[in-house]
Write a structure and sequence with these properties.
It is built from 4 helices and 5 strands. The chain is of the alpha/beta class. It has one domain. A 3-stranded parallel beta sheet has the order 1-4-5, with helices on one face. Strands 2-3 form a two-stranded antiparallel sheet. Helix 1 crosses helix 2 and helix 3 crosses helix 4.
């Protein structure tokens, strides 16, 4: 299951402050940013990986942001434009069956 709002807030501040925390969620789903806060940072991604939590971003409908998220090796990208995401993934050889 994924994190609710209160745990997302705890997660974000834990990432910023380097606080060890335990979450029962296996996944966190985030926007790129909200309320002037960017969630698409190396610090947030490293914290999620350290805790063994998959990280997904939503709703990504532009190729530049998709490319950046793929470069950061996020676990999931939610989009309204699956064809665009597939094209971007193919260009980065990250679509299943594309050459590496």
């Amino acid at each position: 299951h994924s994190m609710g709002t209160s745990n997302v807030i705890k997660f974000y501040f834990g990432a910023q402050l380097g606080i060890e925390q335990n979450f029962t969620a296996q996944c966190i789903q985030l926007p790129i940013g909200q309320f002037g806060i960017s969630f698409m940072t190396e610090k947030v991604l490293q914290y999620a990986r350290k805790l063994g939590i998959k990280i997904h971003f939503w709703t990504i409908n532009d190729s530049v942001t998709m490319q950046r998220l793929l470069e950061l090796d996020v676990d999931g990208i939610m989009t309204d434009d699956c064809v665009l995401l597939k094209d971007v993934m193919k260009k980065q050889n990250k679509w299943p069956g594309s050459k590496n």
